[in-house]
Protein 1
Amino acid sequence: MKSKISLFLLLIITFFSCKKDSNSDLKLAENSKSEKKWWKEAVVYQIYPRSFKDTDGDGVGDLKGIIEKLDYIKSLGVTTVWLNPIYGSPNADNGYDISDYQTIMKEFGTMEDFDALLKGMHKKGLKLVMDLVVNHCSDQHKWFLESKKSRDNPYRDYFHWWPAEKGKPAFRPGSFEADGSGWRYDKTTNSYYLHYFSYKQPDLNWENPKLRQEIYKMMRWWLDKGIDGFRMDVIPFIGKDTNFPEITPKELDEKYDGRWDFYMASAPNTHKYLKEMNEQVLSKYDCMALAEGAGMNLKTALNFVDADRKELDMGYHFEGVNLGYEKGFYKKMNPNWNLIEFKKIYSDWDKVYAEKGWGTIYLGNHDQPRMVSRWGNDAPEFREISSKMLTTFLLSMSGTPYYYNGDEIGMMNIKFNKIEDYRDIEIMAEYEKVKNAKGDLKQFIENQKTGGARDNGRTPFQWNASANAGFTTGNSWLKINDNHKTLNAEAQEKDSNSVLNYFRKMVQLRKDNEVLIYGKYTLLDEKNPKIYSYTRELNGKKMLIVLNFSKDKATPNTGIDIKNATILINNYPTVASELFPYQAVVYEL
């Protein structure tokens, strides 16, 4: 009898233990990296509206131009479109200085045009993500115009002001200023205001709850219209220590690795505000929230995108795209950048999101030079093949891929010869810094041909070989690359082996194979200076990706027998033990 009771008790304990473990497993599955979400499976296509397609002949791209090209966008296989800012703006920083968050920039069209665009995208199964710029606004926004009128204006605390009678405020960097200062004196109220970027982009005061509620109301307005999420510009910078203490060089070195962006992203209240934003706005919609990870690093990134923290969904880092810049120069690229270091960066970032959160992968955008000029080889004999290799990398790595318009046809840096050809506020400020320091201005311009001048990535889309590349019938706002006569989308549509059609094949390969989305990433052949090899593995399915990042033949050493492997994609007709220059092969093992 005693043994029967013991057995009964054991069964009861086992039953409840199993039930508890089952619940734990369910909770684990809900919070795991493998939980399926549409934004994890997305292939995001970034459109820079100003340079995409102009329909009214004013030389500036517009919303009707995007509508006109919806069939093309759909044909790429991408699932989501991220639009750079299209809001009302005086365009000091090409739309990243917003004067009205709920109107459309006149050059781009009307709200009716936007509604038609959104409807057209959704009809074709495309999602639309807007660029949310709320660390700062325009100095022409009504909030700032009111704020600067008097110290007791109701909008005064929408911004960060420092009374001049207290002396000059402690240094903070202003990225787009020749003097490097993030404070601007305003004589109307004898005060300084804070701007981490241009003085025409005053920083918003997130410490003010009224300001936050204005922003949340605006976000809900756009989401209620039906947009599918936000890419959040420099969102880690929104919090501020409003005492604005002096930060000594020693303190910057010891606490923030000598980097101001790490300091600016370290305010503890930032996460409080993002949780509030999630609770009051984001959690109410089936939307995605992407952090532009300025100041985020390996130690802090997960704090922004761990689902359990209920803040944002994913972030992108700058460590990869900043590799190879020479210290002491503005975005001067070392042509002999180190692939081993490149591999380590992307592998380290993969580890950050190995169990929680979600990452992204990108090589180009509106703030970067053209992908093929920076990371591939834009010499005539290598441009197409290296572009295909880079596409293979982006669409086979872990994280959501972000692909910049024009890279799918292998557009390259325009390589301007004089400062007058540029339009970007950032390079103008940097040029003035060199000029003031009596530096080598000619070398500065030369450095930007392969380096990071943002206008390299902003030249108009090359649709065809006609005048102005089919972009506009008027005078383009920025010069069009002369190579559009041979490098254009129309010509590539007709060529089954083109960069464009290779991109489509690679997008489809990713969509057809969940292993390339949710699969575990493992780096191979770590010390190979020319080849980047890795596997992706999920539910018994395994793929091997081998990429030659050099202009020479190179031999991979993956330690994997590929005798019986199936080649799923290859940017050359054949493959041998030694890879051709910039060869990319994806195997199913």
Protein 2
Amino acid sequence: MKNIKSSMLLAIITILFLFACSSKKEEAGSSANKSSNDELVFASTKDIRDINPHLYAGEMPAQNIVFESLVMNTTDGVKPALAESWDISQDGLIYIFHLRKGVFFTDGEPFNAEAVKMNVDAVVDNKEKNSWLNLVSEIKETKVIDDLTFEIVLKNPYYPTLEELALTRPFRFISPKSFINGTTANGVSSYAGTGPYVLTEHKKNQYAVFTENKNYWGEKPIIKSIKWKVMPDHQTMLLALEKGEIGLLFGADGDMIDSDSFKALSEQGKYSATVSHPVGSRAIVLNSQNQITKDSKVREAFQHAINKQMIAEGILNGAEHVADTLLAKSVPYADIGLKGKEYKKEKANALLAKAGWKMGKDGYRYKDGKKLDVTIYYNADNAQERTISESMQNDLKQVGASLNIIGEEKQAYFDRQKTGKFDLMYSLSWGMPYDPQTYVSSWRVPSHADYQAQAGLDKKDWLDHTISDLMIEQSEKTRKQMYRDILTYIHNENIYIPLTYSVTKAVHIKALKGVGFNVSQYEIPFEKMYFE
């Protein structure tokens, strides 16, 4: 009996030892490939940085799962979020929001009308940072009616009010306790929101961990933890995916992996790969203030010199469709019958000759002893823009134009937009729900490349005033005509070379389900995902 007990004990110890070894081996690998809903590992080229929802340093997908808005943009229009319902006065000047009961920030502070007022006022007071969003300058007054009723009074009846309140930033809500000296303009003391996840750990430029908000007022996320892993190098991302160290890649080209890698992963059959509907426009903006590109004939010639089909098919592997116009016809107010500029080298050559640029013996054009030489700047972190630039460089050489290519660190690239010191730059429309109203409205902001590129146009003052009037126009019929006038003028002035209509992509392990796309390309719907 004693021997039997000893044998049984030995067997049990052996089984436990083998189980422990097996568990440790599983733990040594990433949780990315586990089918439990404990953790999803997501890879990004960027750190989340400061996710203060009222400022712009942080990554928007991170802000979106921590902080919420009064209303949300969906494919079916604006829907309730932290506000259960709302009323709009007949003259369009007063919006009254009825807030949800029993909602708390993750630091325990109640979400109520006082907290809403404090947040909205903080955004409006920080006009320097938020002037790009027209709603900020249209808010005249905010009022607390009672604990769960909040009122916004506008200066003018601003038609995109609800859509702009629903954007990922800046009208998201953070706990009053997070404010520093009554404001968020100079930073916050904590990241207490009302969203489905809480930021629980952050090691700069390494990773961030978001865990489930156990007291979330809405439908709780199935995946309990999101690990945001920083991988600046795209090849490192691919290797990590192959090793099972990450479970999801998500974003536009340049933010995750290039089109060649995406295509290869899609064809492997080992992963699931998804592409969104077109979300924005990829274009080149031409500076109307600079010596060469201020000539409308040169700008038009460049339109016909670029082989967009080569970019769409040869570089982007057919994932994006050629863009004929700055905004796709599917964008509200943009289906106005504008004709695209076809790839025709003969026409490009004729236009340049007409503009006085004569072909030299070296294959480049000259005018008054000056070479037809321009420079394009791109974000050096982007996986595709260098390749697209090289394709354009070859196209322009065929018509006698020299294109220099300069990649810059992200912040330097953005700073260049503000100064207007560029010939050509990349320009992405923002996609729904920003297009067309918020995107077009931003053309009046000097810190944007759009404004700088348009500044040399004869009718720039008319353009800016028309956009301002458009934003407060209540007649749908008049609004349509105003958009037609604006978009037609920009199209005819050849300020933009539309290349393709951009998409968002996702690659993930097959066990991960519920991977889709929000209306905004800047959000990742982690809260809808689960493992099977």
